[in-house]
Specification:
about 450 residues, alpha+beta, 6-stranded mixed beta barrel, 5-stranded antiparallel beta sheet, 6 helices, 20 strands
Length: about 450
């Protein structure tokens, strides 16, 4: 008689082998999915870092065009060439500072006929656009290398624009913050510059464009040195003028003052007018023909001497002249590779960034760079004027009550559009810098 077989036991033994196989397959799938998730996360983070590096490089390059005064030019000559050199330096610094997967970002190879970085200022010198493409190759992966060969890499592209609305009827106006309460007439004090109807001017009243664009050495306004003096101490009517080849009168302005303003340690304790000089008023001053700005009038000019002292005290605080003479310096000698432009700023011993930087270091920002308002230049008979543009000035020194020396860095007209929703950007600059494409 044949012995009985235990079919159930045999079946269980066979199932044990299948279970081990299923467990091995499932473990492989789970590990592969985990590895793939890690690889995807790595690539995602790396791409975000690449985009951040591209954005930073493009913005830094566009700011270089503003700093060089290139948007206040119409020719593709000295200012633009200097701006390109400076922009390349800023791009290199931005790529070094922004890491992708722990390594400094790199410029992607140029693809003919395009260059990288690409500087588009020939077609729109007022609004140059800079495109930067970055990449990082050889990114670390885990299991992804099983399914593909070659080098894993990421790349990103960003385009930034420096926007000067001068002479434009198609673009919106701009709005600058931290504007200082100085209003200057539309009268260029240099008699050698091309004249408008009544004499040399900063902004052509017909076209709303810069009347004398470009570098001062080439007949333009960028680099023009001016002594600014307070006018209209006795109220209205008043007519601030260009009183000499290098002198220009300004009128005190009453700006809308918020409850609190960012101030240096020496600021914020004076009258509104002094505080608006020493501190940063975050209220945007829209640039278009409809903007009205109240002037001094009786209240702030009742004591002309005290009012001029507010100019002195506010400027000394603003440019960090207190204590001593530790303000930043505008060095008009050329950087290596430049032909005198753009000017560069050396940090003074009282610069707010010290000890993070050293006195004498070249910096791209300075509290000595201020924005003034340009009005239409007519005689002022009431406490309101039409603002037609901005003037960006480096304050070299204050000369005592009611006077200071400055160098023009940029001029920005309001354009022909008096619309709403002005462009805001670029910090305190009247020439915003913005990302327009990623």
């Amino acid at each position: 008689m044949m012995p009985k077989t235990n079919r159930h036991s045999d079946w269980e033994k066979r199932q044990q082998g299948v279970t081990l196989l299923l467990v091995a397959i499932i473990m492989f799938v789970v590990l592969a999915m985990a590895a793939l998730a890690i690889d995807v996360s790595t690539l995602y983070v790396a791409h975000s870092e690449a985009q951040r590096a591209a954005d930073a490089a493009a913005i830094a390059a566009a700011r270089a065009f503003v700093f060089a005064g290139a948007t206040s030019d119409v020719a593709t000559g000295t200012l633009q060439s200097a701006a390109v050199t400076l922009a390349n330096q800023q791009i290199a610094a931005a790529l070094q500072a922004n890491k992708i997967a722990g390594q400094a970002a790199q410029l992607a190879p140029a693809t003919a006929p395009a260059t990288n970085p690409n500087f588009d200022y020939a077609t729109k010198p007022r609004n140059p656009q800079i495109t930067v493409k970055v990449q990082q190759t050889g990114l670390p992966t885990f299991f992804a290398r099983i399914w593909r060969s070659g080098i894993i890499s990421v790349s990103a592209t960003a385009t930034a624009e420096a926007f000067n609305p001068s002479g434009s009827s198609a673009n919106p106006p701009v709005s600058a913050k931290c504007v200082k309460p100085f209003i200057v007439p539309n009268q260029d004090p240099d008699p050698a510059h091309a004249a408008c109807t009544a004499g040399p001017c900063f902004i052509d009243p017909t076209t709303n464009d810069i009347k004398n664009p470009g570098a001062y050495s080439a007949g333009g306004v960028v680099g023009e040195q001016i002594t600014f003096d307070e006018a209209c101490d006795s109220g209205f009517p008043c007519t601030p003028t260009a009183t000499g080849p290098n002198n220009l009168e300004f009128v005190p302005a009453i700006l809308t003052t918020p409850a609190s303003m960012p101030c240096p340690s020496c600021g914020g304790g004076g009258a509104d007018f002094e505080n608006n000089i020493a501190c940063c008023n975050p209220t945007g001053m829209a640039c278009n023909s409809a903007t009205q700005v109240a002037l001094g009038g009786t209240a702030p000019t009742a004591d002309a001497t005290n009012h001029k002292n507010e100019v002195k005290n506010g400027l000394r605080c603003l440019i960090h002249r207190q204590p001593g003479s530790g303000q930043d310096v505008l060095d008009t000698s050329s950087l290596p590779g430049f032909t005198g432009l753009p000017y560069h700023v050396q940090a003074g011993s009282n610069n707010a960034l010290i000890p993070k930087i050293n006195s004498g270091d070249v910096v791209m920002t300075s509290d000595s760079i201020i924005t003034l308002l340009i009005y239409d230049g007519a005689s002022i008979t009431s406490p309101a004027v039409n603002i037609i543009g901005y003037m960006q000035v480096f304050v070299q020194q204050e000369n005592g009550p009611g006077s200071f020396n400055g160098v023009i860095l940029n001029i920005a007209g309001c354009g022909n559009t008096a619309g709403t929703n002005p462009i805001v950007g670029g910090g305190i600059s009247p020439i915003p810098v913005r990302l327009i494409h990623q």
